[in-house]
Design a protein that fits this description.
Blueprint (H helix, E strand, L loop, with lengths): L1 H7 L4 E3 L5 E3 L1 H11 L20 H4 L15
Antiparallel strand pairs: 1-2
């Protein structure tokens, strides 16, 4: 599956924190948006590693999760 994602956007191929093959979905989406001419502002942070961000992987089935996309007037 990682090879298929990398075929669409090479930056998608990565390695997980445990050393296994993984897909970086966010990096792939950001690359596709930038390729389309969309300005992207990356807000860094790993939800698994930061206690102030919700993580299903860390906390289990609790809380809510959302992504935010905003269009700015330029």
């Amino acid at each position: 599956m990682r090879d298929l994602a990398a075929g669409v956007q090479p930056v998608s191929a990565t390695v997980s924190w445990t050393g296994t093959p993984a897909i970086d979905v966010a990096a792939g989406v950001v690359a596709q948006l930038r390729d389309a001419g969309v300005e992207v502002r990356w807000v860094p942070g790993c939800s698994r590693e930061r206690d102030d961000l919700y993580s299903y992987r860390r906390d289990g089935p609790t809380g809510r999760f959302a992504g935010v996309v905003a269009r700015s007037a330029s």
